[in-house]
């Protein structure tokens, strides 16, 4: 499953927070998540992460590690080819 996560820092980010965040990515990857790309953004959200996970629970477990640092909004993404097959 593919997930798009929009994040917003709860407080001004520090180098320590960024380093800790990198560790969270590494732990999540060991648990089955794969992060395809990530971006810092301008506007309503501070960053965007595109990830892949075998299921919602695995991805949610990974996101919960960031709850002290970030507010998140996550969307489930379905590839266009697969979504087109659902249209009758």
Describe the structure.
The chain is an alpha+beta fold. It has one domain (2-86): Alpha-Beta Plaits. The protein is built from three helices and four strands; from the N terminus they run βαββαβα. The protein has helices at residues 15-30, 56-64, 80-86, and strands at residues 2-9, 34-40, 47-52, 70-77. It has a four-stranded antiparallel beta sheet with strand order 2-3-1-4, with helices on one face. α1 (15-30) packs antiparallel against α2 (56-64). The two termini are 23 Å apart. 14% of the residues are buried. The model has no long low-confidence stretch (mean pLDDT 93).
The backbone outline, from C-alpha atoms, is globular
Q: Pairing-aware structural class of the strands and helices? A: alpha+beta
Major β-sheet annotation: 4 strands, antiparallel
Number of domains: 1
Second rung of CATH, namely the architecture: 2-Layer Sandwich
List the helices and strands and how they pair.
Elements: E1 2-9, H1 15-30, E2 34-40, E3 47-52, H2 56-64, E4 70-77, H3 80-86
Antiparallel strand pairs: 1-3, 1-4, 2-3
Helix pairs in contact: 1-2
What can be said about this structure in brief?
This protein is an alpha+beta fold.
Short key terms for the protein model shown above:
3 helices; globular; Alpha-Beta Plaits; 36% helix; four-stranded antiparallel β-sheet; 33% strand; 88 residues; alpha+beta
């Amino acid at each position: 499953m593919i997930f798009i996560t929009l994040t917003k820092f709860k407080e001004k980010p520090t180098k320590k927070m960024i380093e800790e965040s990198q560790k969270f990515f590494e732990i999540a990857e060991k648990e089955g998540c794969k992060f395809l790309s990530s971006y810092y953004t301008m506007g309503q959200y501070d960053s965007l992460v595109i990830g892949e996970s075998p299921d919602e629970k695995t991805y949610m477990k990974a996101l919960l590690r960031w709850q002290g640092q970030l507010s998140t909004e996550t969307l489930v993404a379905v590839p266009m080819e697969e979504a087109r097959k659902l249209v009758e």
